[in-house]
Specification:
Number of strands: 14
Radius of gyration: 21 Å
Shape: globular
Helix content: 40-55%
Order of helices and strands: HHHHHHHEEEEEEEEEEEEEE
Largest sheet: 5 strands, parallel
Number of helices: 7
Strand content: 5-15%
């Protein structure tokens, strides 16, 4: 292949993907939204409500532009999806404040809600997930995964936007956390760094099945634990110790610890 042929093939590939949202624009949009939702994130002062309202409108117009550019991939008009997302935003905000307060209550090192909102990687990853999940719920492709991958790159926390996560979710430290596509997590769950909620090895044709575990309410999962499989259920109030490997269900209230044996 000549260099000219190579460049022509690359150009054709670019033309075929013209409707993809630009990663930088997606990052700019979620950063702007976080600044509007949480004053701890803001990088500017709004001298009046009108200025704040205009900033919010500009952010939503940015989302509309992202969706409009990928209209051929959407199952509904871009403006309809943008309005639906905006309508659900107050609930997303309430859920995220509940998450932040759960982190504050559960971490002795956290001194203020502002500290949690501005500095905790677990909160940013949860925020990106809840925003992405809301977009995914509307049937919007690709964009939700881009949002959670932005959070993954910044925090080391990998949450699939299709995962189902209940209220008051707490990720402490967070580096290396992986939460797969079909994970279901109840309310008031706390997990630490290095936790994997993953799938056992499955064939590609089983991609649409339940492949990841279900975590009940008020479960605590300590650092380095690995919980695998779509039939694995961790019951309410269970405690999973660090560095455990779990591929079977755990009864409610059970404590599971790694037992080290030396030769």
């Amino acid at each position: 292949m000549t260099m000219s042929d190579f460049l022509q093939s690359l150009y054709r590939a670019h033309q075929q993907e013209n409707d993809l949202p630009a990663p930088k624009l997606v990052a700019d949009w979620i950063d702007g939204l976080m600044q509007l939702l949480f004053p701890a994130y803001r990088n500017q002062h709004y001298p009046s409500f009108r200025h704040f309202e205009q900033a919010f409108l500009a952010n939503q117009l940015m989302l509309l532009s992202l969706l409009s550019n990928m209209q051929t991939r959407l199952s509904a008009p871009a403006d309809q999806l943008q309005r639906s997302f905006e309508f659900g935003l107050p609930q997303v905000h309430t859920s995220l404040l509940d998450d932040a307060n759960a982190i504050l209550a559960g971490d002795p090192a956290a001194t203020t809600l502002t500290e949690v909102l501005r500095t905790y990687p677990g909160f940013f990853a949860i925020a990106a997930y809840r925003i992405a999940h809301a977009l995914d719920h509307l049937g919007i492709p690709l964009l939700p995964r881009m949002l959670t991958e932005i959070a993954h790159g910044r925090t080391g926390i990998d949450i699939h936007p299709k995962a189902q996560i209940g209220s008051r979710f707490c990720i402490d430290h967070g580096t290396g956390v992986v939460i797969g596509e079909t994970v279901e997590i109840g309310e008031d769950v706390k997990i630490y760094q290095g936790v994997t909620l993953g799938a056992l090895s499955v064939r590609k044709e089983l991609a649409q099945t339940k492949r990841h575990p279900t975590i009940g309410n008020r479960v605590v999962i300590y650092a380095g634990a690995t919980i695998l499989g779509g039939e694995t259920i961790i019951g309410d109030d269970a405690i999973i110790g660090g560095n455990t490997w779990i591929v079977e269900s755990v009864p409610p209230g059970k404590r599971v610890y790694y037992a080290h044996s030396s030769s």
